[in-house]
UniProtKB/TrEMBL annotation:
Compositional bias of kind Acidic residues: 105-114
Region (Disordered): 101-126
Organism for this UniProt entry: Bucco capensis (collared puffbird)
Pfam families in the cross-refs: UPF0193
Protein's recorded name: EVG1 protein
Extent of the signal sequence: none
Amino acid composition bias (Basic and acidic residues), ranges on this chain: 115-126
Length: 193
C-alpha cells in the first residue's frame, strides 16, 4: 500500500488520510482531494450519490385532459366513400339476358376475341421497329464507351442484350412468315402448292 501511494505521488495529507481509513477498517474513498479535511471528503461522496439517484417525478401528472384529446383530429374517422367496382349497367343487361333467354350472353365474348387477336397482330411490326432502334442505340452506346476507353467494361453486357433483341426479332419474323404462308395457301388451290 505504501509503495502504491509513493508511485501515485500522493501528498502527505492524502497518505495520512488513507492510512487512517485502513486503521479504522473503513472503505477507501473514491476521491481524495489534496487539501481536504474529513468533512469535505465526506461531502464529496454525498454529491456523487446524488448524481446516481434517479430524478424524482413530480406528483402532478403531465397528461392531457380528455376534452383536449377529443378536440384534436385523433378521434375523427375518414368518411366512407363508396365506389362502384363493376359496371352496374352491364350487370343489369346480363341479368336481363339470363332471365329472358335462360343463358348468359356469349356473343360479346366471341366478338372480343377477334379484336384482341387484331391488336396482337398490329404491335408486331411496331415491336420489330422498336427492337431495331434499341439495337442501334446499344451499338452507339458501345461505340461511345470505346471512345472513352470503357469499352471492355460494357462490351459483354451490350453484346448479350443485342443478341437477346436479335432472338426476339427472329421470333417475330417467323410468325410473320407463317402468317403470309397461311394467307398464300388460302388464296391458291390445294393442288398448286
Amino acid at each position: 500500500l505504501t509503495a502504491m501511494m509513493e508511485e501515485s505521488r500522493l501528498t502527505c495529507f492524502q497518505r495520512r488520510y488513507l492510512m487512517d481509513c485502513v486503521k479504522r477498517g473503513d472503505t477507501l474513498p473514491l476521491q481524495c482531494h489534496p487539501t481536504c479535511s474529513k468533512k469535505a471528503a465526506a461531502a464529496a461522496p454525498a454529491f456523487t450519490a446524488r448524481l446516481c439517484q434517479p430524478s424524482r417525478l413530480s406528483a402532478k401528472p403531465h397528461l392531457r385532459p380528455a376534452k383536449l384529446c377529443q378536440a384534436g383530429d385523433a378521434y375523427t374517422r375518414e368518411k366512407f366513400k363508396p365506389c362502384a367496382r363493376r359496371d352496374l349497367e352491364k350487370e343489369k343487361q346480363r341479368l336481363q339476358n339470363i332471365l329472358a333467354t335462360g343463358k348468359d350472353e356469349v356473343e360479346d365474348n366471341v366478338e372480343q376475341e377477334p379484336a384482341e387477336t387484331k391488336e396482337e397482330k398490329t404491335p408486331e411490326p411496331e415491336r420489330f421497329e422498336e427492337l431495331v432502334n434499341e439495337i442501334q442505340e446499344r451499338k452507339e452506346f458501345l461505340a461511345d464507351m470505346e471512345a472513352l476507353g470503357q469499352g471492355n467494361k460494357y462490351q459483354n453486357i451490350i453484346l448479350t442484350e443485342i443478341s437477346q433483341k436479335m432472338r426476339e426479332m427472329e421470333i417475330i419474323d417467323k410468325r410473320r412468315s407463317e402468317e403470309t404462308r397461311e394467307l398464300m395457301t388460302k388464296d391458291f388451290p390445294a393442288g398448286n402448292k
